[in-house]
Amino acid sequence: MQKQSIQYDSPLDPLVAVAKRLSRYETEAGLSSEDFFNRFSQGAWRDDVQAIEWANDYRHDLALRAELGKILEAAA
Known about the structure:
mainly alpha, 3 helices, 0% strand, TumA
């Protein structure tokens, strides 16, 4: 599997993209990403490709939010 390189025009664009993917996972599973990630981290969730992608997207979401928080804090 090749890595894809995506160019974004705004620092918010990657957050929006990840949020859309998380929303789809949540709708399919009927579970919030936070609850899923807690279960996944404790080994109480199946270990398939979709679960791994969901967990990675959730980690990415947290990192993007932290990064944007720092940018906003510095600008204030």
